[in-house]
């Protein structure tokens, strides 16, 4: 019933827009949104040789996206139509957030797997290094090749958002709610998060997901915060207050299309369809790629992935069996309440 209600609200929201815009207005509106989307022609590996080395596509096993957040804290946006700084500059940027998001073939389940940015992995043509160095050295294409080599999961689409774009998306839905388990102070910014529920605007959401100092687990704690914000934003997007309000629907679509950069296989219709798919989900699960500890490689502090457990989780994603994986191993990260 809840799934049906959300789908109905999306339909009503778009219907109101259709009536308000009319045929000619709708065409202009769609063209305007589409022109806001920045597409990278070489985001996915494109050469014949690279394609031979990639996991081959297998119909009927769902769809997997690589979601990336950049840690370039410039005053200028680096993604979308508002971008004034380049998304990727060789050697100058690394990824702060790396997530594999898998949507099941029946569109009833989503699995989101965060890969710690300091994971020590094999990068094609470069040897071993932190996984976020792949983006710095070779942009999205090298990062995708690295992740596909690590997991055996084929990446179907790529989407990147920077911190400023994320804040805009949060503001477009009038903020999001998060639950903090225990009062914690960010020793870097001086911000104190008291135990209980917080309603965050875009700038506050950035402070929340950027904190790593004084968090249980450091970067692992921040990963859970990132996932909590993603879930909170999804819940807000799919709420009645957003979907039944054409003004909010418009603001949301504008924020998304202006704040993200995608591969050139992603159309406006792709994004609209995925929004409908998200509304129809029965469940979603969040994971951190399994690790076996931290250590030092030279002067670098790194995270070591657990090869066996990483392979098991990756196989579940690859074969579209994430739900069975959860039934077998137990739930992933608890993100309704975080530290």
Automatic annotation (TrEMBL):
Query: What is the official name of this protein in its record?
Result: LytR family transcriptional regulator
Q: Which domain of life is it from?
A: Bacteria
Gene source species: Nonomuraea phyllanthi
Tell me which Pfam families the record gives. Answer: LytR_cpsA_psr
Query: PANTHER family annotated for this entry?
Result: POLYISOPRENYL-TEICHOIC ACID--PEPTIDOGLYCAN TEICHOIC ACID TRANSFERASE TAGU
So what family is this one in?
A: Belongs to the LytR/CpsA/Psr (LCP) family.
């Amino acid at each position: 019933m809840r799934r049906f209600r959300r789908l109905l609200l999306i339909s009503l929201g778009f219907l109101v827009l259709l009536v308000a815009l009319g045929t000619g207005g709708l065409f202009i509106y769609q063209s305007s949104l589409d022109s806001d989307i920045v597409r990278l022609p070489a985001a996915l590996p494109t050469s014949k040789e690279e394609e031979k080395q990639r996991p081959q596509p297998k119909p009927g096993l769902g769809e997997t996206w690589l979601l990336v957040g950049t840690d370039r804290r410039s005053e200028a946006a680096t993604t979308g139509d508002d971008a004034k700084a380049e998304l990727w500059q060789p050697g100058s940027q690394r990824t702060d957030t790396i997530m594999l998001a898998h949507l099941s073939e029946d569109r009833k389940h989503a699995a989101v797997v965060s890969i710690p940015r300091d994971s020590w992995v094999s990068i094609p043509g470069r040897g071993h290094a932190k996984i976020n160095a792949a983006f710095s050295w070779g942009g999205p294409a090298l990062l995708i090749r690295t992740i596909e080599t690590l997991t055996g999961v084929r990446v179907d689409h790529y989407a990147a958002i920077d911190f400023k774009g994320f804040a805009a998306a949060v503001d477009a839905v009038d903020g999001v709610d998060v639950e903090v388990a225990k009062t914690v102070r960010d020793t870097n910014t001086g911000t104190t998060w008291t135990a209980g529920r917080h309603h965050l605007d875009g700038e506050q959401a950035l402070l929340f997901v950027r904190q790593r100092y004084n968090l249980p687990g450091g970067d692992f704690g921040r990963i859970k915060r990132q996932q909590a914000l993603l879930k909170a934003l999804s819940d807000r997007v799919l709420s009645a207050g957003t979907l039944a309000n054409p003004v909010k629907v418009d603001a949301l679509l504008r924020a998304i299309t202006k704040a993200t950069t995608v591969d050139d296989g992603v159309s406006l219709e792709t994004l609209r369809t995925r929004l409908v798919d998200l509304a129809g989900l029965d469940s979603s699960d969040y994971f951190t790629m399994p690790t076996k500890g931290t250590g030092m490689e030279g002067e670098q502090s790194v995270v070591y992935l657990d090869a066996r457990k990483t392979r098991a989780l990756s196989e579940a994603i690859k074969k579209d069996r994430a739900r069975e994986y959860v039934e077998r191993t137990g739930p992933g990260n608890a993100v309704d309440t975080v530290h």
